[in-house]
Specification:
two-stranded parallel sheet; globular; 26-stranded mixed beta sheet; mainly beta; 329 residues
Length: 329
């Protein structure tokens, strides 16, 4: 521990936290994982806050040769951290939530209130990933989840657990990021996972022609507000269905277009196992993107399901081989 409230994890081994970590009288508490891994044992409770610093749980400044760094939360553990920053120019940074709870309220700095920054940096082979294996990830209403605001690959996986996020950007918040190439960002919902984006979703805040941003629904459920993208962006953003469902409930902080709910999204891809679009009761939502078949699957796809008692308006003719199953509405 230093006078700025920082606990630094060094060495290639694993540090186990079995009790509680709380801010002292100065309200400063930070954890910097420079090497190896930190494990929160069952029942552990950690609170990291610092009024003067955004990145209170961070992977910054890796030790020489630290190619893999991780924070693992065991079932029943809890952590509150103002902002989790997963950069640091090392090959692989990982956070696993295993039937545990991680709350990231966000830090209101001059550039925006960041809650989770997945941005490995370095080069295109580096990876930052946060995996929810049961349990819950929650960010504050105004806290940005920033995916891929530097070089490398950024990945958020929701596997049977839940993620409730205030603001999400595939890029640099609601502005246009740099032109680094080799940047990929994706959110994948698996099995019975659940993703709720409550207030804002920016499909592309990065100015690079080779960029691909993906929301993949391999089962599970995602509820999205009306979306947007920075107008001068480059690159591709896509929703890929392979068994999951997207709900279009309205709300959020951006104005909804009656004909283009998923404004800024480049395309919608239907995979082998189909998918579902839910429009709740007493609502109407328009989708302007062409529903196209995944080029990797040439056979008939399982049905695209229309769920919910509301009205879905497809602005373009679907181009996939399979049924549209109108289950309600």
């Amino acid at each position: 521990s230093r006078n700025d409230g920082r606990l630094i994890k060094q060495g290639s081994g694993e540090q186990v936290i079995a009790g509680r970590i709380q801010p002292g009288s100065s309200s400063k508490a930070r954890l910097n994982v420079r090497e190896g891994s930190v494990r929160l044992a069952a029942g552990a409770e950690v609170t990291l806050t610092n009024a003067a610093v955004r990145d209170v749980l961070t992977f910054e400044t890796p030790s020489a040769g630290a190619d893999y760094r991780a924070v693992v939360m065991e079932p029943g553990s809890k952590m509150t951290a103002t902002c989790l920053w997963m950069g640091g120019n090392s090959k692989t940074n990982v956070v696993e939530i295993n039937q545990a709870e991680l709350y990231l309220p966000g830090y209101a700095n001059t550039n925006g209130p960041d809650a989770l920054v997945l941005t490995p940096g370095g080069n295109s082979s580096n990876l930052c990933s946060l995996v929810v294996n049961g349990g819950a990830l929650v960010t504050g209403d105004a806290g940005w989840v920033v995916l891929g605001a530097n070089q490398g690959n950024s990945r958020l996986v929701i596997n049977n657990g839940s993620a409730s996020l205030g603001q999400v950007s595939f890029g640099l918040r609601d502005t246009l990021g740099y032109t680094f190439s080799g940047v990929q960002a994706d959110i994948t919902v698996v099995s019975n996972g659940s993703l709720v984006v409550r207030n804002r979703l920016n499909w592309n805040g990065w100015n690079a022609s080779d960029r691909v941003n993906t929301l993949a629904l391999n089962g599970g459920f995602a509820a999205l507000p009306p979306t947007f993208a920075v107008p001068t962006n480059a690159g591709l953003s896509q929703v890929v269905f392979n068994g999951g469902t997207v709900s279009l409930p309205g709300g959020g902080w951006d104005v909804e277009s009656p004909t283009n709910y998923l404004n800024g999204l480049s395309r919608i891809v239907i995979g082998e196992h189909g998918g579902g679009i839910d429009v709740p009761f007493n609502r109407s939502a328009g989708v302007r993107q062409t529903l196209m078949q995944d080029s990797a699957w040439t056979g008939t796809v399982r049905a695209l399901r229309k769920c919910g008692l509301g009205t879905l308006s497809l602005q373009r003719v679907p181009r996939f081989k399979g049924e549209v199953d109108i289950q309600a509405g």
